[in-house]
Amino acid sequence: MSKQLERLAEFEKEKEQRESRFYQQAQLNVNQHKQKLASLEQYRVDYIKGIQQTGQSGVTATYYQQHLSFVGKLDKACEQQMQVIAQAKMAADQRKQMWLKQQQKVKAVTLLLDKKRLAKEKKEAKAEQAMLDEFATQRFIRSKSSSF
């Protein structure tokens, strides 16, 4: 039973480590998407500044309309990226919950294993004490017998 429990504890710990890695990967994915959004937003700001600088020297309405259309596309790309981030966060939260549940399983199995180990140690200590008591009793009886 104890060997099976030890194997189960080892299996659950490996599973917990795997869930931890999955959660870390999901978090990394969220951060990468956030960086991509930040880059898109910065590009949008720089692009608008470029339009403003070019517009000061005078541009055609068609040129200006094309650039505004492109800014609209950048806005849409930013919105889409925010949706991707929201989905990635949900996935990361799910991974975190799975990892936390697995941690609870590891703690439960470890606690049970510790409890079994402690019970075994108590039983062994009790048996050893009984043996020592018997030995002391025998010595006492022998010492009383030899004094008569």
From TrEMBL:
It holds the Pfam family FliJ. Gene3D superfamilies: 1.10.287.1700. It comes from the Bacteria. Keywords: Bacterial flagellum biogenesis, Bacterial flagellum protein export, Cell membrane, Cell projection, Chemotaxis, Cilium, Coiled coil, Flagellum, Membrane, Protein transport, Transport. Its main location: membrane. The keyword Ribonucleoprotein does not apply. Belongs to the FliJ family. This is Flagellar FliJ protein. The lineage of its organism: Bacteria, Pseudomonadati, Pseudomonadota, Gammaproteobacteria, Alteromonadales. The gene is fliJ.
